[in-house]
Amino acid sequence: MIQKRLGLCVLLGFLIFSVGCARLLNIGTTEPSDEIYEKDIVTNQAISQPAPVVQDDNLLQQQQIQIQRLRSALEKKEMTIQEYKKELEIVTLKVKEGAANQGLQASAAQLPPGAKPGECYARVYISPKYKTISKRIMVQPASEEVKIIPAKYEWAEKQVMIDEASVEYKEIPAVYKWVTEKILVKEAHTIWKKGRGNIEKIDNATGEVMCMVHVPPTYKTVKKRIMVSPARIEEINKPAKYKTIKYKKMVQPPKKNVVPVPAQYKTITKKVKVAEGKMIWQRTMCETNIDRNVVLKIQQFLRKDRYNPGPVDGILGPQTRRALKSFQRDKGLAIGSITYETLKYMKIQVDKKK
């Protein structure tokens, strides 16, 4: 809330300052431009027509009056800006005072209650608290392992057909032979033949004797080719042909063997935060109640516990502070000051009179 008020005041002052500068620039740019314009006219007239000396004096006086007027306006603007700055400073100061008062009130509300005169307290940081827990976690879920058992084979013999049974047709030609045969050329017959008898032939017209004669048949021996057996188609059946071969015979087929694999677990340990880190008030040693002897005992304890505090001289230097801070962090103690909690842990007695 305080930061918002301060920001608004700064923004208001900046706006006021910007308006004042803008007005000043308007005065400085508008009026001199008119003056320059008039001066240019006068100069042009002076070049074209020579003017008397009296006119030059009047013009100079007018210019001086104009300059004086501009200076007065500029001084007024500067005074206005200074007033704005003072108002801005006053507002800023009030805002800061209000913020400081609120901060003091808040700090007072957070101060440790029940403090006694002579006791010192400091806001120290309490590291987060952790605890170690064991947890059984699954690293591999349950599954099944499949094993394939291959098939078993052995050698065996079998006959395989290499040529199928078939029917072949064969053409058998006709068979011939030569034979002799007596054939009848002319059958037996009778003919009239002239003959001789008791009667004599007297002339050509008479006395001719004719006898009927039996003529036996006439035969002729010839040689001819005769067919013994006719041509034919003979059917020949050809049986199938086989061959004995060796082959691998499966005596046991392949099979699948499923083996269950149980889940695998492991136990892990991890640190779990049980309390967040926080800032608290704790009673501590300060310049009013600490002495060289206490610091010397702290340095001796740190060196014995293998923390390097630097020279063991009773002076609370930067190296001793770093070693003490590391010790407090490692032991889970409040970090940031020489608290009574730390002194109690180190078993260091503090003089109660101090």
Protein model, in words:
With 354 residues, this protein is α+β, with helices and mostly antiparallel strands. It has 4 domains: 109 residues; 92 residues, no CATH class; 33 residues, no CATH class; 73 residues, no CATH class. The chain contains 5 helices and 14 strands. α1 runs antiparallel to α2. The protein is elongated, with a radius of gyration of 76 Å. The two termini are 43 Å apart. About 8% of the residues have low confidence.
Features:
PGBDSf, 5 helices, PGBD-like_sf, Peptidoglycan-binding protein, Peptidoglycan-bd-like, two-stranded antiparallel sheet, 4 domains, 36% strand, coiled coil, single chain, 354 residues, alpha+beta
Strand and helix order: HHEEEEEEEEEEEEEEHHH
Q: Could you say which structural class the secondary elements and strand pairing correspond to? A: alpha+beta
Number of helices: 5
Total number of domains: 4
Mean pLDDT: 78
The count of strands amounts to 14
Span between termini: 43 Å
Using only C-alpha atoms, the radius of gyration works out to 76 Å
Q: Low-confidence segments, ≥5 residues, pLDDT <50?
A: 24-52
Strand order within the widest sheet?
Answer: 1-14
* Shape, principal axes of CA atoms: elongated
Q: Specify the biggest β-sheet.
A: 2 strands, antiparallel
Proportion of residues in extended strands: 35-45%
Fraction of helical residues? 25-40%
Coiled coil: 60-94
Domain Peptidoglycan binding-like: 294-344
Pfam family, one: PG_binding_1
Organism: Candidatus Magnetoglobus multicellularis str. Araruama
